[in-house]
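Page 47, continued from p. 46.
Same chain as before, 147 aa.
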Amino acid sequence: MAKVVRGGPRVTKKHLARAERDRILRRWVLGTSALIAALVLGLIAYGWAEQTLINPGRAVAEVNGESISARYLKARSELAKESLLAQASQIQDLITAFGDQAAFAGSLQQQLEQIASLLQDEVSLQRSVLDSLVEETLIRQEANRRG
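Result:
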């Protein structure tokens, strides 16, 4: 005859206390994780909103009272990036056409690598675009002053 098992494992006060501590700890860990995730998402949302909604027209530089906005800098940076991509395409076409001339192809390959490094470093590209915008503004202001 089979052994009859009555009830299940005995649940003692020690087991109940341990289960309660585990439940409290699990709730605390989940709550803390949710809070950290909410903070991270909030910071990301704030950064996006500040860049696109709150301050897109803020001045990134001011030249003798004339300001250069972040929106204008971004537009000019995109234009510079497109120009560099077009240059890279033209150089690639020249390398294909004149690939048999080693010295010429080597020079073109070097130019292509320089353009690729400029395109990879977006901060450097924006800095050079900003420098050129400041120079353009200074030249325009001086031309207006001279008449």
